[in-house]
Amino acid sequence: MSGKYVYQSSIWKEEPEADNPFAARVSYCRGYDVYGDVLKKASWFEYIYLMFAGDKPSTQQAMLLEKLAIALANPGPREASVRAAMNSGVAGSRNAASLMAALAVGAGQYGGGHEVFISVNAWETLGTDLDAWKQFLTNPNQGYEEDIWLPIEHAPGFDPNGESCPLPLKQTLEHLAEISSGNTLRWLLEQRETLEAHVGYPLAMSGIAAAAFHDLGIGSHQASMLHLMLRLPGAAAHALEQRELGWKTFPYYGDSITLKNDPGFRDAPDVSEFNL
After folding, report:
1. Is the separation of the CB atoms in 229 and 136 below 8 Å?
2. Residue 120 phi, psi (nearest 5)
3. Domain extents for the chain?
4. 43, 64, 202, 218: which could form a disulfide with 165 (CB 3.0–4.6 Å)?
């Protein structure tokens, strides 16, 4: 093949099979033999860190990424991207459509991937300068240039609809700060109440995630991608559950639709109720 049409990548390298140039005999990720070495010796989160950050993680870094993934895995039915997947699932859409719905709704500036992007950029610029953070959170759109994204309407990393920091977020921040080898999460733990008092509303999970990604040395674009990916398991699980429960038990549908010649309501498993 002509060099004119060769893909360039520092992430991936392949050696083709002798009898099939379209199949790889050996695949390397950041220089490591994926199927001959990484598969045998690495954990899932060590491999993900290697792929996105470019280096083999320390034990603490791999653990931090794993615990962050647990915290993000299921935002729950109160979260908009999960509800989007639930709407798709209960409507009988294809599984890919449920994931696409969650990604679309979860990509934005209210608890979503772009808010994480903004916050990681802020950590890279501001570090742990409290006064600089107060100025930024007061006016996060300073220097804003016309973009596909509109100016953000609240302090990034904080929940403008909250009253106080929920217990799960406190628990997450405390545990991640305890295991992190960086100082971003520890500083955020120490300054959380000061920053919350300054903005007038509590820290959000997106703010904790951004601090964790910065401690991991993961850049803003990579952090945004990982944030989207790591929240998909919960969206997928809830979409599949609602598909099985059916539209009659789903808010907004069941009381508004009447079927002619209804074949009958099947028994549904015991479920928890959420007032949304």
Report:
1. no
2. -65, -40
3. 3-41, 71-141+148-232
4. 202
